[in-house]
Amino acid sequence: MIALTGATLVVDDALVDDQALIIREGRIEAVVAANDVPATADVHDLSGCTIIPGLIDLHVHGGGGHSFDDPDPAAHQQVLDFHARHGVTTMQASLVSAHPADLARQLDALAETTTTNSMLYGVHLEGPYLATSQCGAHDPTALRPPTADEADRLLARYGLITMVTVAPELPGVPEFIRRLTAAGVVVAAGHSEARAPGLAAAVDNGLTHLTHLWSCQSTLIRQGPWRLPGLLEESLASNHLIGEIIADGHHLPPTLIEIARRCLSDRLIAVSDATAGAGMPEGYRYRLGIIDCEVASGVGMVVGADAFGGSTTPLDGMLAHLHRTLGWPLPEAVAATSTRPARVLDLAHRKGRLTPSYDADLAVLAPDLTVGATMRAGAWTHRG
């Protein structure tokens, strides 16, 4: 039995002091008054710190100089270790668009990684079923509409692929979405020129998620005197879709984050979109698929283009930006980086909260919100 004492706890919408977390066999057994800690407990005094549920990153390509699109499980482990040091306890490995043979090799390697490290919950395919005109840092030659055969191949990897981003306007997408969502895969709209009819058809077939708002999304246009909302406006006006923001202080200015917050409320999630450049020095070169990128002014940039090449900030940096820079209450920032992502992955019954019977997945924050320690399933995966 472990007792974590002395820290402020973020319990749902509240900051709780003078309470201790009791952990047994990988789960939170109880939250008790500090003077009620069992005498037999292994006590860890974390005075001056704050304990939050472990961070859950739905959209991450790499970190610490390594990438998930490297078909080498050893590289994947380096990525997982890097993000564990930043408070992440569950994540999806995001893959940029790739040609079929390359994608198959990447998925084979990630299937091996998921058997050896349960921190990796599954794989998010950010493409290749995207609009060429909104490709961003994706290889445009790899983009293609989905086919029935590709749906068969993806569904044959049951349990590995947990999320797929698609452009709703591509031919074959509605049936593709229907088949994937019937198998429990979350389907998101992104990298798209979709207008209202395309998004509506996608939603009717099971689409529930929006990939990084404002990044590679169609926006308002005029046809004569008529104004036609794009995917962005339709997303913000939706009453049930869940939207991502990259809250690194570079991708989106505070005004846009506040618009998303007001529109989506508790359906807004922060993701890192971290790349191999996360944690690396200025000028470090890395690749997203075949696209050359570099760390420049604290963000990823496509070499030779005025375009972002993913983020170089892990999810704890997003949490700090939301709370310290933008003034969100800490419980709200934690909800956006842990509690709400758990719902997307259908894990809300056991992850994303500090409450009895939940997995003992947590991060210990210093006063400056840097991560001093990370625990997963009751075991320390990182201690500073």
Automatic annotation (TrEMBL):
Record domain Amidohydrolase-related: where: 50-378
Sorted UniProt keywords: Carbohydrate metabolism, Hydrolase, Metal-binding
Source superkingdom: Bacteria
Matches recorded under SUPFAM superfamilies: Composite domain of metallo-dependent hydrolases (SSF51338), Metallo-dependent hydrolases (SSF51556)
Pfam families with a match to the protein in the record: Amidohydro_1 (PF01979)
Family: Belongs to the metallo-dependent hydrolases superfamily. NagA family.
Stated name of the protein: N-acetylglucosamine-6-phosphate deacetylase
Species of origin: Kribbella yunnanensis
